[in-house]
Specification:
By secondary structure, the chain is an all-alpha fold. It contains eleven helices and no strands. The protein is elongated. The chain starts with a helix and ends in a 5-residue tail after the last helix.
Length: about 280
């Protein structure tokens, strides 16, 4: 067996094996990352569940309230600056409607009036006599705005940027799906080509080594991204709430790290089993 494996190595060549390994690392890493992005960041069901986690609720409340403060300024409603006028229960429906509008399968967005009306409806429905007097004052002022209230909501909640983000998201979703399909085909092609040049044991050894490296890079890259919001104040970043998104993404990146660990461990077992005499 050992002599046969060495003959395979001579026939394929060490440089060729390294080339196969590098290509497999890239392909496995790409498949894992794009699949994770598609099922997390571009998935409205996942993201709505994510913003309900205890460590993310406060982030959502601050973000929605910052836009609500802007709305109060636009319509001339007196309020305390940078105050959380809305509660978790009042901000959650607004966040849900924005996520539903932005993510998932949908046509390209050209109009955000319907979303603005949904946000306006959420404000009118969820602000009652038990709400803060300032929130009730904003609600009263909005009702006096008539049809202009929709445009005030569009401006205050940056819905034009949300529309742009929704169109970028659908492009990313479609591109991700296409790339994942192409890379899976490429993966099977590489493995088939490698198998035609060497034995099955060597194929398993190289493929699992590539999987371990892909898992390692996932752990390293997303581990660093996960701790950035812990080390830096990302809320001050510009670009329409990028800082808030990074804070919410921190816990998602930790899940990516866990996936990287699982990939590494699952590949390490067959890699070690095929290491001897390979």
């Amino acid at each position: 067996m050992a002599d046969g494996s060495r003959a395979d190595l001579r026939r394929v060549g060490y440089e060729q094996l390294k080339s196969y390994k590098r290509n497999l690392i890239f392909v496995v890493f790409l498949i894992a990352i794009l699949t994770m992005i598609t099922t997390t960041f571009l998935n409205p069901i996942f993201m709505k569940r994510q913003i309900r986690m205890s460590n993310n609720r406060a982030i959502v409340v601050r973000q929605i309230n910052s836009h609500f403060d802007t709305l109060a300024d636009l319509i001339g409603a007196e309020h305390e600056d940078n105050a959380n006028l809305l509660t978790i229960q009042q901000t959650q429906p607004i966040a849900d409607h924005i996520i539903d509008y932005s993510l998932g399968f949908h046509w390209f967005k050209v109009n955000n009036t319907k979303l603005a009306n949904q946000v306006l409806h959420d404000i009118n429905l969820n602000i009652d006599k038990g709400s803060s007097s300032e929130a009730q004052r904003v609600q009263s002022k909005l009702k006096k705005q008539g049809d202009n209230a929709v445009y005030a909501v569009i401006q205050a909640f940056d819905l034009n940027i949300v529309t742009l983000g929704a169109n970028i998201a659908i492009i990313l979703l479609l591109v991700n799906i296409v790339i994942v399909i192409v890379t899976i085909i490429t993966l099977f092609s590489l493995l088939s080509d490698l198998h035609s040049r060497t034995n099955t044991k060597m194929v398993i050894h190289i493929a699992t080594a590539a999987g371990m490296w892909a898992g390692f890079w996932m752990i390293l890259i997303f581990g660093i991204l996960a701790i950035i919001p812990v080390l830096l104040n990302v809320e001050t970043l510009p670009l329409a709430g990028l800082g808030y998104l990074m804070e919410i993404s921190s816990s998602i990146f930790l899940e990516y790290v866990i996936v990287g660990v699982v990939i590494y461990v699952l590949c390490a077992i067959p890699w070690q089993a095929t290491a001897n005499n390979s």
